[in-house]
Fold:
Amino acid sequence: TFSYSSPELFPVSYSPALIIIKKKTHRLQKL
Structure:
């Protein structure tokens, strides 16, 4: 079972897509 509630715990190489999504959401928050 995977805990998507805390993706930060997963390694970067595990799923780089999560980082892209985080960056996009971060930009939306800034706007």
